Inverse folding.
């Protein structure tokens, strides 16, 4: 049988492109690739184009999949600052978004704060995000860490005392043994 791609003659077992590793199989063995993002069939731009290049070109140009949202999408409102944050940090006074460095009204020279007369000496309100702990929780965690540290230290001291005592006892018995041998 004659291969329709390379025109070589093969038996029935080796006529398939894969069986005789046909160098011209890409011309005849055309498979339509599927885009992994939008699950649409991708057409080739030219006949000998590889499947990977066709899919890559499709993704770059006309893929209809949802575009991924940028992780760092919260840009600081200070014009000279190029910092972006994962979480949105808004000033409670001027309601603008800032990076962590400029989040406090004093750090970004909040215009609303300058226009508002100061009547009390209370600290300015800051928005507490859901991942921040209260002062009591911080104190509790600190006390727990100190307690654990003290427990480990006392356990280390007991272990050190036991080994020192055992070493002294074995040394004195070794001295006695050396003395009795002489």
């Amino acid at each position: 049988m004659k291969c329709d791609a390379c025109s070589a003659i093969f038996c029935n077992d080796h006529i398939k492109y894969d069986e005789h590793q046909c160098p011209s199989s890409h011309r005849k063995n055309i498979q339509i690739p599927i885009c992994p993002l939008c699950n649409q069939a991708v057409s080739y731009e030219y006949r000998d184009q590889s499947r990977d290049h066709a899919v890559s070109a499709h993704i770059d140009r006309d893929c209809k999949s949802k575009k991924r949202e940028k992780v760092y999408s919260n840009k600081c409102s200070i014009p000279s600052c190029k910092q972006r944050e994962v979480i949105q940090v808004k000033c409670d006074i001027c309601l603008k978004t800032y990076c962590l460095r400029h989040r406090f009204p004093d750090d970004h020279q909040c215009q609303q704060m300058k226009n508002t007369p100061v009547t009390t000496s209370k600290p300015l309100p800051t928005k507490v995000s859901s991942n921040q702990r209260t002062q009591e929780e911080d104190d509790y965690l600190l006390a727990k860490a100190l307690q654990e540290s003290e427990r480990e230290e006392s356990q280390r001291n007991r272990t050190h005392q036991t080994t020192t005592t055992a070493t002294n006892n074995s040394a004195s018995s070794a001295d006695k043994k050396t003395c009795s041998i002489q």
Observations:
- The beta strands are 74-75, 84-85, 89-90, 97-98.
- The two ends are 102 Å apart (CA to CA).
